Every structure is written in C-alpha cells, then in structure tokens.
C-alpha cells in the first residue's frame, strides 16, 4: 500500500479474515488465544501477563486488532533471544504471513506496515542508518539539554503555579519532552506547526477511538520533509542538520523516515516515563520522606518504573525468517512476534523471590540487541525525565494527588503505559 508522503508496503491489503495454516490461531493454542484489548488488560496488564505465563509459558498466542494472530513473547530470556538473533527473527515486516488478512485502514498499520526507515532495515543497511542516528544524537550536549529542559520546565510551571492545582499530563508531562525533542531537531519550540506535529505523532502511534493514525502519519512526514529541506539550505547545530550533512549521504526521504523514529521514540515514551515516575513518587510511601527534590529517590523511582511500569509495554515486532522453536512453541516462517517488554521485566524466572531489584539496569525497556534504542538515546531520555521530575518537585515540594490513587486511570493502549490524567494540587506559588 502506498500513500502520498510516508508509505506502508505490504504484499497485499485486502480484508480477508482467514488465517493461514500454521499461524497461532490455527495451531493447538487456537482455543486459548487472548485478545490484547479490553479494559481489564489496559488497566491491569500484569494480571494478564501472569495468566498467560501460567497457561502458555514464555510464548503465548494472542490476537491483535481484528483478531489477527501473533505470538506474545513474555519471558526475559526469550525476548533477549529474539532480539539477539536477527537471522531468525528479523525486522522486515514484508515477511508476515498475515498480509492477506490486513485491511488498508488497520489501526496497527503505522507499526507494522513496511516503511523505508531504520526500524525496518537489516544487516549492513541497518548499521549504516543507525550509525547516522547515533552520531547525530552524540552531538547533543547532555548538560545543555538539561539546561534547556529546566528552562522549558520553569516556563510550563509558571503557567499553572499560581492556581494551586493542575492536570499534569496536559500541562506539563507531554509538553516538556515534546518541546525538548523538537528543539534538539531544529524545529521551533512553540508554534502551530510544532503542536500539530506532536498531536499527529501521538495519533499515529496511539490513536484513540475515531482518530485516523494513517492520515496522521502522512501529515508527520510532510512536516518533516519541509524541515529536512530547510536544513539542507541552512544547517545548524541540531540533530536534523547532523543527519543531513553526515558522510553516509542519506537521502531526504531516509532522513525523514529516521527522524520520525527518533522523535516518536523520544517524545511519547519519555513523557510516560515522567508520568509513571511522578505517580510512583506521589503514591508510594517509600518515597514520601525524600520526595521533595531528593535526587537519590528520584533516580530510584525512574529506574523502578523502567522495571515495573515501563512506558513501552509491548513492541511489534519481529517476523520469523524460517520455521523455528521458541519457548516450546513451533514458530512458522512469517509469524509475527510481539516483544512483551513489560512482561519480560517482571519474569518470575528473573526474580524468583518476587523481588524486582530496581537498583540494577538490566531491564529491557529500551529493548536489546542490534535494534535496541541507539546509544545515547536512553541517556538523553534520562536527562529529560530526571530534569522534568526534579524541577517540578523543586518548585512545588508539597505537590500531591488531587484524587485518590485508585481514581487514576491508564490510557487505553496495548503498547504504551501512561495515565489518562494526573490531577494534582499544591500551594500556589507567586511567580
């Protein structure tokens, strides 16, 4: 399927609902395949992961939107194996044996429709494209980024500090990493174009009912094409310019596609990392004593969230290159595997005593293997998240939830883990 702007390629895109022989739905696990949807799953996914693990082991048959079959990889060792063996589980989604069952308006098409971006490249081509991103991100000064985030944070806080209450998701959590990321990429921090770009990125990655993720993705591509054109004409000290002027000689379209990956990976997951950390700090009595700007407690909370409440719950996906075995399951060539990052982080085989040692950093929240988040992306995300949390607590040391913790609800998403709203109250601050 092709569109004007960013394109999704598939061998076929007709809405035939049948599943080929050998896929999870036609296997012996057919009767117990579970839909990755529903309010129970969205609000308490760990309960589903536990039940799936108890019934199926480390690899479970699941149904995606439209009852499209896939495998959910739940085990830490199994996720690590999949991400470490590209020769068996590759990223090019054109291998999928389900394309005949996928309609052109399928909600997950922005995730799995093949695009000419670094996300779907393999081998030497992936190393070339990822190398450009890595070097472009290495040019970001982490101390300068922290200062920029502090400035952005203070500007946002000033807008609600005198009111004594606010809804942090809309007034702070999503806005801070958005402004920081677009500034890193050389776009205006404020402005209607920037606001629309971020709205469309969110829709393309995590559409709500009634939204069109494919159309949103097309608009994102159009905006970034203009940015790349502008940087070709007048490069500056930003990520986009470093990609444009890199010796690898990426085309404009390659840069556009890879910028989409960089911005999307930096903005929404980082925002939900901030959100989930603030929720932990405001609801868990272990952090109550030191919450007021305490750097040690904030650092512990950030890392604990990556283990127990990771922003990216699941990632789709990998596609089997040939018939193989995984977790006692027979995986057929072309089967889709969803990486259950949240389930893997809490694998009881990893933590047999039910204690998750949040002080270490061996979690899979940034994935692993050659296709993991490129260095130094996790470090930059940590700078943004840590600065956002610490600056808020510094300016509002008595901030507290404006509702009972049980009243907080999670956004209805299989893929991302973040609150719908985070209402708080605090002593009004005169600026």
From TrEMBL:
Amino acid composition bias (Low complexity), ranges on this chain: 10-21
Signal peptide positions (record): none
UniProt-listed SUPFAM superfamilies: Cytochrome P450 (SSF48264)
Gene3D superfamilies for the chain: Cytochrome P450
UniProt-annotated stretches for the region Disordered: 1-24
InterPro entries per record: Cyt_P450_B (IPR002397), Cyt_P450_sf (IPR036396)
PANTHER family according to UniProt: CYTOCHROME P450 YJIB-RELATED (PTHR46696:SF1), P450, PUTATIVE (EUROFUNG)-RELATED (PTHR46696)
Sequence similarity: Belongs to the cytochrome P450 family.
Name the UniProt record assigns to this protein: Cytochrome
């Amino acid at each position: 399927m092709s569109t004007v702007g960013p394109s999704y390629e598939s061998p076929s895109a007709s809405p035939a609902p049948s599943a080929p022989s050998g896929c999870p739905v036609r296997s012996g696990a057919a009767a117990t395949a579970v839909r990755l949807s529903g309010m129970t799953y969205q609000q308490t996914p760990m309960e589903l992961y536990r039940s799936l693990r108890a019934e199926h082991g480390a690899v479970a048959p699941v149904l995606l939107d439209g009852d499209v079959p896939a495998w959910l990889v739940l085990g830490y060792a199994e996720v690590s194996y999949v991400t470490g063996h590209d020769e068996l589980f590759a990223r090019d989604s054109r291998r999928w044996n389900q394309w005949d069952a996928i309609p052109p308006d399928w909600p997950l098409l922005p995730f799995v429709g093949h695009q000419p971006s670094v996300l779907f490249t393999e081998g030497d081509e992936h190393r070339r494209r990822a190398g450009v991103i890595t070097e472009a991100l290495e040019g970001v000064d982490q101390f300068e980024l922290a200062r920029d985030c502090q400035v952005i944070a203070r500007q946002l806080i000033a807008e609600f500090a005198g009111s004594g209450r606010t809804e942090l998701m809309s007034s702070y959590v999503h806005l801070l990493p958005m402004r920081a990321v677009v500034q890193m990429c050389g776009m205006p921090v404020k402005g209607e174009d920037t606001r629309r770009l971020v709205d469309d990125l969110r829709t393309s990655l995590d559409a709500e009912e009634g939204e069109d993720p494919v159309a949103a993705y097309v608009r994102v591509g159009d905006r970034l094409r203009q940015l790349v054109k502008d940087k070709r004409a007048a490069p500056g000290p930003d990520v986009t310019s470093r990609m444009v002027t890199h010796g690898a000689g990426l085309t404009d379209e390659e840069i556009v596609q890879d910028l989409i990956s960089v911005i999307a990976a930096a903005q929404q997951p980082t925002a939900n990392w901030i959100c989930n950390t603030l929720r932990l700090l405001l609801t868990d009595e272990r952090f109550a004593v030191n919450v007021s700007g305490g750097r040690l407690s904030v650092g512990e909370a950030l890392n604990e969230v990556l283990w127990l409440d990771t922003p990216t719950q699941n990632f789709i996906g990998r596609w089997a290159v040939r018939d193989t075995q995984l977790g006692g399951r027979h995986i057929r060539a072309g089967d889709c595997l969803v990486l259950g990052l949240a389930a893997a982080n809490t694998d009881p085989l990893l933590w047999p005593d039910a204690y998750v040692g949040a002080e270490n950093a061996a979690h899979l929240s940034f994935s692993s293997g050659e296709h993991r988040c490129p260095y130094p992306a996790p470090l930059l995300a940590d700078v943004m998240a840590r600065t956002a949390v610490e600056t808020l607590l510094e300016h509002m040391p008595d901030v507290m939830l404006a509702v009972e913790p049980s009243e907080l609800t999670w956004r209805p998403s299989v893929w991302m883990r973040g609150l719908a709203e985070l209402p708080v109250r605090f002593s009004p601050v005169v600026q």
